[in-house]
Amino acid sequence: MESQAPDQHRPPTPDDPAGLSGTKLQIVEAALATLKTKGFAGASARVIAQAGGFNQALIFYHFGSVRTLLLAALDLISQRRMDEYGPAFEAAVTAPELARLARTIYDDDLERGNITALGEMVGGGVSDAALGSEVAARIEPWIGMVQRKLEQLLAGSPLRALASPRDLAFGIVAAYFGVDMLSHLQRDRARAESLLDLATRLAALADAALPPPGKELP
To answer: Is this prediction's pTM over 0.70?
Structure first.
């Protein structure tokens, strides 16, 4: 997959929101950078250790296996995204606000290489059922968060009877990841950006059919 520079927005910090610090954080940062530049197949203990400038034995001492380490790298992405965008997501009370936020997250994910890392882990999970299950489990919290927001937006609306918020949430998250990954594979952001712009316009139309924030339709 295409090379990505390590995340320039988030250098290693003494105390990361994912609960990592010191040597463990250094190791996870190196694993994440390796996923972005070398892919899942190239993320060996030796390559990760070279990227981070430490002895590869530390990987097994702190994490037990390379697989566990790579899953920790995925956890780090998820926690950082949750910490950065969770408050804005919870504060959004209209469909257009959510659509604009999705566009911001999309741009950020591509710039930081998060989709590259996730795509590599998904690819690895295709041929490894146990890994695939672990990767899927790490996407579930995002589905749950979107579901809760949809329940809030659709409360008291006739649209609530048309589809389950759980099913809609699954479809939205799946579509988001699919669009991100496909645009990465095609090396072309234009179509994905056009689709997200369309989603923003459609969100404005959908907003007209929803109850005002904090109110339910009679």
So the answer is: yes
